[in-house]
Amino acid sequence: MEGKQISAAVIKRLPRYFRYLQDLQKENVERISSEELSRRMGVTASQIRQDLNNFGGFGQQGYGYNVEYLKTEIGRILGLDKTHNMIIIGGGNLGKALAGYAKFENRGFVLKGIFDNNPALIGTKIRDVSVMSIEHLEEFLAEQPVSIATLAIPTQDAQQIANRLVACGIRAIWNFAHVDLVVPEHVYVENMNLIESLMQLSYRLNKDH
Questions:
Q1: CA 82/CA 86 separation, integer angstroms
Q2: Domain check: are 102 and 66 in the same one?
Q3: Residue 127 Rama label (left phi>0; alpha psi -120 to 50; beta)
Q4: Residue by residue, what is the 3-state secondary structure of 131-172?
Q5: Considering the domain boundaries, does residue 203 fall inside one?
Q6: Is residue 2 part of a domain?
């Protein structure tokens, strides 16, 4: 499947497949059909087959999918078989909550540093990781291999910090700031806008009235 363009919708569904397969493993389920998986996930069996066929299929007619094998393969496609060093910009409430989420390490995401410009936070520790001054960002990234930077900072600071991160070679930004970042094409941005998510819930509630 080298070089094949995979749609954003398929990529978005892959982590969900991984999660359900992980749950199936915990239930000691060894194999599952696309029909049974569709009932659990609320996705059509046809959609599941189409999604997985983008990467080779993985199933056998009359047998279904080997749960452990499929989970391993989807994990590999997602890059979960590799280690991804990450940093967090912003040591406030959101940054602390993200840094405290222990399951990151279980997926290969290793927190290497936290940065802030608040003197009251610099030098404090979050899960044994010291908060450093944002002034030392470039120096730190020159010495540490980091692939993902998380922005948990005010909107007005996000673009400037993103520019600094890009200049340091960061190629993936997990953006919690409420702004659409302007970055080069080779830099990937995943926006996590909590307000927009609430607005979507509000829309659905509003439709019911």
A1: 13
A2: no
A3: left
A4: EEEHHHHHHHHHHCCCCEEEECCCHHHHHHHHHHHHHCCCCE
A5: no
A6: no
Domain holding 45, by residue range, is 8-77
For residues 132-156, one letter each, b for 16 or more C-beta atoms within 10 angstroms of the residue's C-beta and e for the rest, the string is bebeebeebbeeeebbbbbbbbeee
Q: Is 54 helix (H, G, I), strand (E, B) or coil?
A: coil
Q: Give how far the C-alpha of residue 70 lies from the chain's centroid of Cα atoms, to the nearest Å.
A: 20
For residue 105, what are the contacts with CB-CB under 8 A and spacing of at least 6? 111
Cα 39 from Cα 25, distance rounded (Å): 17
Q: What is the pLDDT of residues 132-188, one digit of tens each?
A: 999 999 999 999 999 999 999 999 999 999 999 999 999 999 999 999 999 999 999
Each residue of 106-129: pLDDT tens digit? 788 999 999 999 999 999 998 889
Q: 158 near 179, Cβ under 8 Å?
A: yes
With beta carbons less than 8 A apart as the criterion, state whether 100 and 150 touch.
no
Q: In Å, what is the CA distance from 76 to each residue of 51, 72, 108, 205?
A: 15, 6, 12, 38
Residue 165's CB is within 10 A of a number of other CB atoms, namely 25
CATH number of the domain encompassing residue 27: 1.10.10.10
